[in-house]
Amino acid sequence: MASEQTRERILDAAEQLFSEQGLANTSLRAITRAAGVNPAAVHYHFGSKDGLIRELFRRRLEPVNRQRLELLERAERAAGGRPLPLETILECFLGPPLRLYSRPEHGHGRFLRTFGRLFSERSELVREVLTIQFGSIIERFLDAFARSLPDLPREEILWRLHFTVGAMAHTLGCPIGLVVISRGACDVERDVEATLARLIGFVAGGMRAPLPETVRGGHA
Question: How many domains does the chain have?
């Protein structure tokens, strides 16, 4: 039990520091100091800083992606082979992270800030983490989106899914900005379900938009 608690303290401290300083700028010494553990504990539990980073993303992303797939498969069974409505697919994709990462025990979007740092640091480790955590699930959702949006090329759906992830990450990773701008009238964390409904409506409009003229020529 003590060993597991040490492991979780290291992961929590790393997530906090990575979200503030970035992955490359955060040393193992800083992480162990923040966690209040011996420096050797990182090597014992994770082998290296890269191993720590892999586990940090695995523990946050695997439960979310598992729930995404469960929701999608349940919806597809209920649809009896018919294409799913776009909003249903978006609910399956956006609902789990929005509901989970907005909870206090997940740092109110702290992980999303860490995740954003991952994208800004180009390395083989980044490619590895993204491939492991998102390779199969993106293909699975692409298939569902393609059936729901048959007039859109698969490449264009990928672009729009990329923009969707950006909107979700900003919503979760920077909620205080909206509170300040709206003088407290708009608050992501006040009503997560209402925020999710707004996000789905916004993204669905973008997903259904016709191809821009500058793009259409390349798909003629």
Answer: 2
The DSSP symbol for 185 reads: S
Supply the CATH number for residue 190's domain: 1.10.357.10
> What is the token pair recorded at 62?
């695997």
Query: Which residues span the domain enclosing 24?
Result: 1-47
| Dihedral (CA of 198, 201, 204, 209) sign | negative
The C-alpha atoms of residue 57 and residue 79 are separated, in whole angstroms, by 33
Q: Quick one: 22 and 75 in the same domain?
A: no
Question: Residue 181 carries which side chain, given as an amino acid letter?
Answer: I
**Is 181 inside any structural domain?**
yes
Taking the C-alpha atoms of residue 125 and residue 130, their distance in angstroms, rounded to an integer, is 9
Residues 197 and 168 reside in one and the same domain:
yes
Question: Among all chains, which residue has been given the structure tokens 């590895």?
Answer: 128
- 93 and 25 Cβ atoms separated by less than 8 Å: no
Element holding 96 (H helix, E strand): helix 86-101
Q: pTM for the whole thing?
A: 0.84
Cα four-point dihedral sign 157, 159, 161, 164: negative
Count Cβ atoms below 10 Å from residue 167 Cβ, excluding itself: 14
- Is residue 8, in this structure, part of any structural domain at all? yes
Give which of 150, 129, 144, 132 is closest to 68, Cα–Cα.
Answer: 144
Q: What is the pLDDT of residues 63-96, one digit of tens each?
A: 889 999 999 999 999 999 999 999 999 999 999 9
User: What is the rounded distance in angstroms from the CA atom of residue 121 to the CA atom of residue 131?
Assistant: 15
